[in-house]
Amino acid sequence: MTSTPSTHRASFAIGSEQAARRVVDLLTESLLEGEAAIAAFEGPGERWHITMHFAEPPDQASIGELVRLAAGDDVARDIAFDTIEARDWVKTTLDDLVPVLAGRFIVHGRHHRGRVPANKLGIEIEAALAFGTGHHGTTRGCLLLLDHVLKAHRPRRVLDLGTGTGVLAIAAARALHGAVLASDIDPLSVKVARENARLNQTGHLVQTIRATGFSAPQFARRKPFDLVLANILANPLRQLATPMARHLAPSALVILSGLLTHQVSGVIAAYRARGLVPLRHLRIAGWSSLLLRYTR
Q: Could you tell me if 192 and 131 are in contact, meaning their C-beta atoms sit under 8 angstroms apart?
């Protein structure tokens, strides 16, 4: 992966993993998609270090206010803003992240290659400006629900809608040894997902396409899907309820995430109206992930 231009960085430390997750979740929800890459990792003395990288100079007052709301005045006052020279900065940041375990899956960076237990399916995710390293509560929730589904089902037509780094598509392809269609509205995410699929020896199984919603012809050709994974956000998920139902097989299973806890009831209502009923609800670090079944 090539080096990026000089980037702008905001960094600070906080005293606990729970507090770090709360801050990262608030920043992820508040910043525009693609505006920043955010990473958190444990440092010496059980302090957690949070780093944000921006392509453009950030509004320091706004960032400070977001951190203050999530972590208090003392942490916000200690934010350090600087500019770093051109290099593969996201790759360097993600290499420091601890591998994430989610059922049979373990998501890791390059530096943990070769340390995956024999009874786990390792997914190596290269650093990139795309959402979904496995460290966010929504991605881990989806992986845990996928692991649950695969204990009793072997879906044949799988869709990862809003694939980001491709982690969910890769997980499904590796576990099922089968084809997965992965789509994203962002061309960078499509490129990253394709590269990560190749890295994980699933490039021949994961087809990555750029698409808005269900507009691309590949959806019509590959439907009906019996498993859909959609880790997006609440508003687009509500809007996608009707077109998604039209692309589902009878008794299809759907995993939805990217939901703050207070948004769950509205999303469930939208999907229940289209014939999908909730089966499981996971809550991780303030985020919710849902498993639903299509009943029509």
A: no
Q: Please, what's the b/e burial string for 205-222 (b: 16 or more CB within 10 A of its CB; e: otherwise)?
A: bbbbbebeebeeeebeeb
Residue 262 has pLDDT above 70, yes or no: yes
CB 91 within 8 A of CB 127: yes
pLDDT band at residue 275 under the 50/70/90 scheme: very high
Predicted model pTM: 0.70
Range of the domain at 282: 131-294
% of the chain surpassing 90 pLDDT = 50
Give the CATH number for residue 290. 3.40.50.150
Whether the CB-CB separation of 45 and 111 falls below 8 Å is answered with: no
Instruction: Give the DSSP letter of residue 251.
Output: E
3-state SS of the chain: helix, strand, coil percent to 5?
40, 30, 30
The amino acid occupying position 194 is R
Residue where the block lists tokens 């089966």: 279
DSSP-derived 3-state class of residue 239: helix
What number is the average pLDDT over the span 165-188?
A: 94
Would you say 109 and 94 are in contact if contact means Cβ atoms under 8 Å apart?
yes
Cite the DSSP H helix spans in 112-176: 137-150, 167-176
The CATH number assigned to the domain holding 87 equals 3.30.70.260
| Residue 146 structure tokens | 């996928």
Ranges 91-100, 105-114, 119-128, 239-248: which has the least confidence: 91-100
Q: How many Å is the maximal CA-CA distance in the chain? A: 55
The token pair at 169 is: 């598509």
